[in-house]
């Protein structure tokens, strides 16, 4: 398997022309799914959200490419192109490994993360600029009549990849699989985090501050550009939040008024008030890195503003984040190479063999390369099968055969998937305590 970091960053290499991936993260009930639905319908009805052309235009809409990463969701009101539920059965995972809901989501994400190469391969293929369609030959009758043959309609290129995530933010943001999924996405496409906030539930200074701290932790964990999306503005206007983020005195005034109001539960007196005060000062620097928009996923209000922010953050990603990402990847690669070199040196010393490393490394790298090609072509074969239907789901279940998984992951240091497969195999069958998650994770070497 080619690790995401070694892949040619096809999408990102396209620069400003590359599709932007928008990852929707937010607390349970903040309105992520409704917001995703609104994004989809907006993109279908507004051909170019960043242009000033009116919604009704002759330009065909550029449909988004949609990923659902929430394994536990019952119903999604849009048609995802890639759905984690097609490859992982969350309920079965919970049952088999005796897990609770969060453990089930985490394990499902871990299992899905093992297929990240196929996912990225498909995304790259699906979002590649459409090939120019050859102009059909003009018929003699048309030629005689002086009519010109109209060029065939061109499929519009995908400009947005939309990603829905589980409501259990920490399970996604703080897990190894969440990191793998996000970093693979970000190393291939400009990626932006949309942090969805339930505005009506954020009106008190303390809940507002809690939400900001959460957003701050996500920003520092993911190291990706972030847009704060104050949702449900039809129920509560978000002007207060924007004001608190730009004017320290406005936040201070709100704190004072909450302190003097005996009915306010959110605000605080004494140490709470001074803590909130200092935090608002500390977070001042953090606020400067964010875009803030107020939207209503229900009515569609604020969507144009949101897409303008996405475009701004995409440029920021390409300008500031991408070089940093590439620097970190190069650093990791160098560390890995140095580690391998050291291990090889130790091995050679043990074997008392000198300077025979060349044929060995050549063989193993050509083997890895061959298998990488097999995996990618497998992905493309499967993809071609569903070429007719633009919004057809990519059926990841096709990848589930043991044979393909084994093929894809025969890495010299053992891939995630190999370890997972191994752990899954060893844990199969009714063995009572052996099903414990700790043991499973230990065997998978991820605990
Ligand atoms: N008034 C109003 N309600 C909204 C809006 N967006 C979402 N809701 C409501 O908020 C509730 C939660 O919305 P969801 O989209 O399911 O939220 P979610 O974040 O996906 O929830 P989880 O899947 O549990 O994480 C639903 O009752 C929605 O109808 C909005 O813009 N305005």
UniProtKB/TrEMBL annotation:
Segments for region (Disordered): 345-447
Alphabetized Gene3D superfamilies for the sequence: P-loop containing nucleotide triphosphate hydrolases (3.40.50.300)
List compositional bias (Polar residues) regions by residue number.
419-430
Going by the UniProt record, its keywords in alphabetical order are: Cytoplasm, GTP-binding, Hydrolase, Nucleotide-binding, Phosphoprotein
Asked if the record carries the keyword GTP-binding, the reply is yes
Q: Name one GO molecular function term.
A: GTPase activity
**Can you quote a single GO CC term?**
cytoplasm
SUPFAM superfamilies of this UniProt entry?
A: P-loop containing nucleoside triphosphate hydrolases (SSF52540)
Amino acid composition bias (Acidic residues), ranges on this chain = 374-391, 400-415
Q: Which InterPro entries does the record match to this protein?
A: Gpn, Gpn1/Npa3/XAB1, P-loop_NTPase
Q: Tell me the compartments it is located in.
A: Cytoplasm; Nucleus
Under Enzyme Commission nomenclature, its number is 3.6.5.-
Q: Which superkingdom does the taxonomy of this entry point to?
A: Eukaryota
Where does the protein principally reside?
A: cytoplasm
Q: What does this protein do?
A: Small GTPase required for proper nuclear import of RNA polymerase II (RNAPII). May act at an RNAP assembly step prior to nuclear import.
Q: Which family does it belong to?
A: Belongs to the GPN-loop GTPase family.
Task: Tell me the subunit arrangement.
Answer: Binds to RNA polymerase II.
Protein name (record): GPN-loop GTPase
Species of provenance? Lophiotrema nucula
What lineage is this protein's organism placed in? Eukaryota, Fungi, Dikarya, Ascomycota, Pezizomycotina
